[in-house]
Please model this.
Amino acid sequence: MLSHKTQIYLLICISTILVSLYGSNNDALDNEPMHDSVLAKTLYLNAVGTVADMRFKSSYIDSNGAVGTNQVSWSNLAIQVEAAYLGSIVAIRNNDYDLANRCLKTVEFALSHQNNNGTFTGSSAKDKARFIVLSCAALTFLEKSMWTDKFVDRINYVVSKFHKIALWVKDHSASEPAIHNTNIKAAVALVLLKVGFKVDNDELFKEGESYLKQVFVNQDNCGFYLEEGGWDSSYQMVTCFLLYSIYIAVFFEVERQTQIIKSLELAYEWEKQRIDKNSGKIDGTGNTRTANEIAKSPESKSINYFEATLSLAYLYSLGFEQADIYADSVARYLVENVN
Model:
């Protein structure tokens, strides 16, 4: 059995090899990456810059890490973590150390308001899961950026603080009303696997694997992941992002890694059929939860072009053919048609 440190080292090496093998299309880049981040060539895609700049305002983050209304009094966990996630992308793209440091502080600031049992007052189970999911993504970007040496100790400490949240998620996930939906199963899997792996908690890790297996079971042979008993071309991309995050953040045996990639490949092939390559519009026909027109949505939710763009960009980093082109198309549609 390999030691924990050896496993992490191998994971970093494997991820770096993946990026070097699959490379990038220079025509799709704003400029050449200026660091050795595993995700560099993904983060420098035009499409990623477009959507990140649309959603992120650096002025939202105070010098102490508080975001938006939290600068006055603590009230909103969600805005903290989204600022960290998007801000880390913008910081790396712009070689902005000060912004990167403030992004890490947003996570630290949120954790300073963590209750003894790992929860956050006024936050739902979904908020807590999303907090770890997006925090892990932001921390992964920063950990593998040009500022690795400056941030590594703080990042390791932050991840250790996730342990209580993960234990809470483990104990309460089964009672989550939406747990039958695949994207929620994938989110829970990521939380438990990521933290279980990092803090050497076998119980958390095994529970995470159980949820991951449920994700695979919930994938139709056609490629879509079940959402409310059918398909949804928007939530499909959310599950893809979560599986991608699991793949790059957790050490697995080759068999499990292959299983994740095959699932993503099948999901990507299904999603491509619903994207107009020229306009970037995502077909919502038959969706169980979302639609391009809110009035036609079963849950009054629109298709999330922002998340779809980023998910396609992440799949591109795994070598999925033309995923960067689809990401560009979807980003253009977002800019031109979605408020």
Observations:
- The mean pLDDT is 84.
